Amino acid sequence: MSSDTILYETGEHIATITLNRPEVMNAFGDGMREALLERLDEADADPRVRCIIVTGTGRAFCAGGDIASMEKLQADDDTTVLRERLRVASELVGRFRAIPKPIIAAVNGAAAGAGMNLAL
Predict the structure, then answer these.
(1) Could you write out the DSSP letters of every residue in 89-120?
(2) Domain 3-119 classified CATH 3.90.226.10?
(3) One digit per residue, pLDDT tens: the chain, 120 residues?
(4) How far, in Å, are 2, 37, 47, 59, 73 from residue 107 at the CA level?
(5) pTM of the model as a whole
């Protein structure tokens, strides 16, 4: 998953993190959770950033997990990859809770599954 699936910009003391897979309603694909963690860390570490906004490109905020990716994971029957995804997802939730800066979910459309959790 290329880094352009998570966009990051700062300005006026605000960091904006944008989920950028509009063709699949910003569903989480391979590597996307890790990229989101990196951007959260970047915003948290930047003393100029006072607030973080998370949003999505296109008509959805986030449709949750990428079904095609999940189907492949199930077909491969690889529990190692599944465990790693669950570990990263858990780390992501913990990171959102640990960051002392306000985090705003700018929900611009559908928020389903993990996307709903992210919005909360």
Answers:
(1) HHHHHHHHHH--S-EEEE--SEE-THHHHHH-
(2) yes
(3) 446 999 999 999 999 999 999 999 999 987 898 999 999 999 999 999 999 999 999 999 999 888 877 766 666 666 787 787 788 888 888 999 999 999 999 999 999 988 998 898
(4) 23, 19, 26, 10, 28
(5) 0.87
